[in-house]
């Protein structure tokens, strides 16, 4: 909902003025608002995403969303989050399984994050073990359903963190920019970085001027 022009007109309404097309003056106004931290005009443009991601990504994303509503300077972030629930659905579960060349080592000087890619042989071992673990969980999940166990309890057998979930994320342009500034950083988890790049690609097509100004230089 909205465009770069929405931000401009939200700011200009203070003086009962409106722009019908972006001008150089409007571009300078967007730059000024972003540079000086005048954030309210950026909350009048809203974008909605449908996201399908492993639970480990969803929970990290959600942690950010909760925090952003109280983040200094953001005010009301205008966010909504509605997620599919295995209390109600029993569609075939899907899981994120890293390939042999995607397993990363523990970092040398930190308690979180990751280091370099491990040897292929070690990665292949853990890809195989994870696939076996997922298969076993699915078998037990399906057996529980077949025996009449309710879906909300049968799901306990599913390996949780790699399980894909689907949700709608509706957020103001300011809030999307804050997410991107956090999750495009080099020390963000690789998997959520990949999603952040996709979020950026979509939002940049819709709000090319504003998002460029809101992202950390």
TrEMBL record:
Top-rank lineage group of the source organism: Bacteria
Enzyme Commission number, as recorded: 2.1.1.148
UniProt lineage: Bacteria, Bacillati, Bacillota, Bacilli, Bacillales
InterPro entries in UniProt: Thymidylate_synthase_ThyX (IPR003669), Thymidylate_synthase_ThyX_sf (IPR036098)
Gene3D superfamilies, sorted: 3.30.1360.170
Enzyme superclass (EC): transferase
Protein name from the UniProt record: FAD-dependent thymidylate synthase
């Amino acid at each position: 909902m909205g465009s770069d022009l929405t931000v401009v007109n939200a700011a200009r309404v203070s003086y009962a003025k409106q722009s019908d097309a972006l001008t150089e003056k409007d571009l300078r106004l967007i730059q000024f608002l972003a540079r000086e931290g005048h954030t309210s005009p950026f909350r009048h443009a809203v974008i909605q995403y449908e996201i399908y991601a492993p639970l480990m990504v969803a929970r990290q994303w959600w942690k950010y969303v909760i925090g952003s509503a109280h983040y200094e300077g953001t005010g009301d972030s205008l966010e909504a989050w509605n997620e599919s629930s295995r209390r109600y659905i029993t569609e075939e579960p899907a899981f994120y399984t890293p390939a042999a060349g995607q397993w990363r080592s523990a970092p040398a000087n930190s308690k979180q994050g990751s280091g370099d890619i491990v040897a292929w042989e070690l990665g292949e071992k853990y890809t195989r073990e994870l696939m076996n673990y997922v298969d076993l969980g699915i078998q037990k999940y399906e057996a529980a359903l077949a025996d009449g166990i309710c879906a909300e309890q049968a799901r306990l057998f599913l390996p949780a963190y790699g399980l894909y979930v689907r949700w709608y994320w509706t957020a103001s342009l300011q809030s999307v920019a804050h997410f991107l500034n956090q999750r495009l950083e080099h020390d963000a988890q690789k998997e959520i970085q990949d999603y952040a790049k996709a979020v950026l690609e979509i939002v940049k097509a819709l709000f090319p001027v504003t998002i460029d100004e809101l992202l950390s230089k």
